[in-house]
Amino acid sequence: MTGSNQRRFSRLVVDGAERSPNRAMLRAVGFSDADFSRPQIGVASTWSMVTPCNMHINELAQAAGEGVRAAGGRDVLFNTITVSDGISMGTPGMRYSLVSREVIADSIETVAGAQGFDGIVAIGGCDKNMPGCLMALARLDRPAVFVYGGTIQPGAKRRDIVSVFEAVGRHASGDLDERGLAEIERTAIPGAGSCGGMYTANTMASAIEALGMSLPNSSAQEAVSDAKRIDCIQAGQAVMQLLEQELRPSAILTREAFENAITVVIALGGSTNAVLHLLAMARAARVPLTLDDFTRIGKRVPVLADLKPSGKYLMSELVAIGGLTPLLRMLLDKGLLHGECLTVTGRMVAENLAAVSSYPPGQDVVRGFDNPIKADSHLVILHGNLAPTGAVAKITGKEGTRFTGSARVFDSEEICLQAILDGRIERGDVIVIRYEGPKGGPGMREMLAPTSAIMGRGLGDSVALITDGRFSGGSHGFVVGHVTPEAAVGGPIALVRDGDGITIDAETREIRLNISEAELENRRNAWCAPKSDIVQGVLAKYRRLVGSAAEGAVTD
Q1: Annotated catalytic, 472?
Q2: More confident residue, 497 or 531
Q3: Tell me, what's the pLDDT at 119?
């Protein structure tokens, strides 16, 4: 490839006498004469001091820039936003979380498109950073590598952020005093990195590596480690190699690659948010993907990793035994991965895994196929008269596979949470939290505070919770989210009343409101859409544009 072809986009910005003003601007930000003939690589950083997940990413971005320069390119660092799910959880601010995914995607696309970058390294650390970055890389379709910021180290006594949320429920039930709650609060989060279990951040990092858009084991490194810094340097070098090979995301993000990602999410026991985000990422990549694909793949892929929230281990303990690549090799050898898919190494999945060793003997973080956590997927797509276009359940089997109970209906997360903390939820209840969907919230808040309060009060095995909102990767128990159509557009969940019988059956993949069709139709005819006081700004704009959660809740 010639230098000008390597500089497919940047040469339009800096070559020729007529681009002298452009070069003058770039000289002011540190460009030398030689830099104008080098490929320009945008380094998209999600650094901020908003959250520990991203507080170290400025250093990682600089390391990626080193790699770009070492390989003969010119790095240009720029930032996009991040918000913290953990900090905004349970508050009105959580409405902005899923919205931020769209803002991140739009902003990276905007900067890279405007500046004429030839390639991109994107570094994400919190839940929505990662799908937001990938959506932008898919849209731009320029040589690109994604880098995960890395997982946090465990807190004292192997605590993490979910330990704190569940401690709130224990405190409310009287099992934990103020001093104990304060001690957990002070010791759960020791520093930089994303939440430590197989929650949404680690789930999405693993999915992106399985897609082929990260270097091997980028998803399974601690945030504060030499391995993560080296990963960033190598990512900068890798994007330069992708320029040489003319290898773009459209050649990597194939339907088979998305099937690999779904397979890995299931094997890890990953977050329900992966369903929402993989649908959105596939749409950006123009790859057909539906909820039915999760059901189809889930029938043949077992849950193998015993990771939190439902399991015992933290991500750092998976890192210690070799990370993700030995699991990928296990899945490949079993015929569950498409080994021919290309990756950002320039090689196929099977080539990347050819020399990967097995996990050490005696470890039980990842089980063998002869002793799985669950024989098929924990991500169960449900349909029925309560969710005609689908809902997503997270059923590990530990909470059972079938639940029938009486509805307790709440029109917001806050009202429900208070009822749980006050002890007004009883065994056998099916909690219904509605008007929390993409349009209804707006923003589709995560229900970690209610699910954690349920677990903290010792009700995890005796109540169910359904919502048109979504769940944190840290949620566990008998929970069903993404109920569609959502309440705000008149979906059946809007018609449920206190005392109605509800049945959730993971084996038949059904969610049913146990009333007659005639009664359901009468309620539908009487339903009126609620009014909202959100009439302008980003939330109002999001409500107007966003689609169904069953299609990824995207805005374009």
Answers
A1: yes
A2: 497
A3: 98
